[in-house]
Amino acid sequence: MSVLSMLQPRSGLRVLVTGGGSGIGLVIARAFAETGARVHVCDASQQALDALRSDPANEAISTTHADVADKTAVARVFADVESKLGGLDVLLNNAGIAGPTGGIDEMDVEQWEQTVAINLNAQFYFARLAVPLLKKSVHGGSIIAMSSVAGRLGYAFRTPYSATKWALIGLTKSLAIELGPDNIRVNAVQPGIVRGPRMERVIAARAEQLGLSYPEMEAKYLEKISLRRMTTQEEIAATVLFLCSPGGSGISGQSISVCGNVEVL
User: Fold this and answer.
1) Could you report the per-residue pLDDT of 8-46, keeping only the tens digit for each?
2) Residues 170-177: contacts with CB within 8 Å, 24+ apart?
3) What is the pLDDT of residues 131-158, one digit of tens each?
4) pLDDT tens across 167-190, in order?
5) In sequence order, what are the residues at sequence separation of 6 or more whose Cβ sits closer than 8 angstroms to the Cβ of residue 232?
6) Number of CB atoms found within 10 A of residue 110's CB
7) Which of 45, 76, 201, 202 has its CA 20 to 30 A from that of 83?
8) Rounded Cα gap, residues 222 and 214, in angstroms
9) CA-based angle 90:95:221, to the nearest 5?
10) Residue 173: CA atoms inside 13 Å, Cβ hemisphere, count?
């Protein structure tokens, strides 16, 4: 195999993307499909899944409507994965929410618990059911946890989000050690400030919290990035594909920031 050919995933991979109905998850799901993978996505938004299925370009992607924080729904996802894909080679644990913005003394307990349930507990629910399938993967299985640059930096007023993203790094490191003998690689990707509607909502919430205009808050975010620009969803997808390619077969237990070098949050 040439070095160049090692940079693309093998055709025919069976891939599950959580939170794959929109945003980064959908971009990644489509990227895998372009390589010849068979992709299944789950999402809490039926509207997003309907839009996905209505696009002929997504014909290689099957779907399940599911709340990732619901253990029963997660089991249903895996029943669909086995019936539609017949196994699994890659789990992309992507589903997550931004969580609340506010001081810790003002934080609503239910919002904290919801953030932990979706951002952390759900990744455990999916990993525990994926591992028996990944152990049967011919070329070795791969789990990729979608963490965040907030999983390596403190993030004032976004403590639930940051805490869960830090926790995913511990989960990744531990599972990499645990599952390595079964030829399953486990890594985390840490996006930074990614251009798109979700980041716009985050900036708007932070601006309101600090009493700033949106342009002022956006400028403050960009000042924290060495490259002085936001990263793109496609850059995140390209990193994920590399981790699942033969060229990435020696990478496990790593947390890879795709952020333009965010210096502080």
Assistant:
1) 899 999 999 999 999 999 999 999 999 999 999 999 999
2) 171/120, 171/123, 171/124, 171/127, 171/145, 172/143, 172/145, 172/147, 172/253, 172/255, 173/253, 175/127, 175/143, 176/252, 176/253, 177/253
3) 999 999 999 999 999 999 999 999 999 9
4) 999 999 999 999 999 999 999 999
5) 194, 195
6) 9
7) 45
8) 12
9) 115
10) 7
Query: C-alpha 204: how far from its chain's center?
Result: 22
Q: Could you tell me where the beta strands, DSSP code E, fall in the chain?
A: 14-18, 38-43, 61-65, 90-93, 141-146, 184-191, 255-258
Would strands 90-93 and 61-65 be described as parallel, antiparallel, or unpaired? unpaired
Q: Is 161 marked active-site? A: yes
Crossing angle of helices 159-179 and 122-134, in 10° steps, is: 20
The answer to the question of residue 240 being in a domain is yes
- CATH number, domain with residue 25: 3.40.50.720
Using 50, 70 and 90 to split pLDDT, how confident is the model at 205? confident
* Of 69-73, 208-212, 231-235, 246-250, minimum mean pLDDT range: 208-212
Total domains in the fold of the chain: 1
List the domain range (segments joined by +) for residue 246: 9-192+232-258
Residue 216 lies in a domain: no
215 domain residue, yes or no = no
Q: For residue 91, is pLDDT > 90?
A: yes
At 24 the three-state DSSP class reads helix
User: Which residue among the candidates 125, 155, 161, 221 is catalytic per the annotation?
Assistant: 161
Bigger pLDDT: 196 or 187?
187
- Tell me if 1 is assigned to some domain: no
